[in-house]
Amino acid sequence: MSSNLDALYRRVIMDHYKKPRNRGVLEDGSHTINMNNPTCGDRIQLSLKVEDGIVVDAKQEGEGCSISMSSASMMTQAIKGKKVEDALVLSKVFSDMMQGKEIGEDLDLGDIEALQGVSKFPARIKCATLAWKAMEKGLKEEEHE
Known about the structure:
Blueprint: H1 3-18, E1 31-37, E2 42-51, E3 54-63, H2 66-79, H3 84-98, H4 122-143
Antiparallel strand pairs: 1-2, 2-3
Helix pairs in contact: 1-2, 2-4, 3-4
């Protein structure tokens, strides 16, 4: 990856960290998921509102490193308005990306793509995937209700 692209990705990550999107708690959410990463202390509370198989709204709050918090911000943006199954597919694509697997060039991941460099730092992968694992847990509960 070029140094210009690295710098752009760092800016995107820091923008989401300093100005997180969808920060807060949904009072009328259908799911609230609390997760933490005991290794580094990152924690997230994810609130999801699912209606008729669609993620209508998503909010997140917590504390942690820039990777963890920016990933939560990006994830909530990415899943709002998506069908539950599409949000779970996106989570699988993100997980593959974190494992260094090639992702299809036809996929537009938007800001999420800025996190692809994390795959080079195994200790940071759990930081990036925390919010995604919380989302999966909440949406898989939705599928079983």
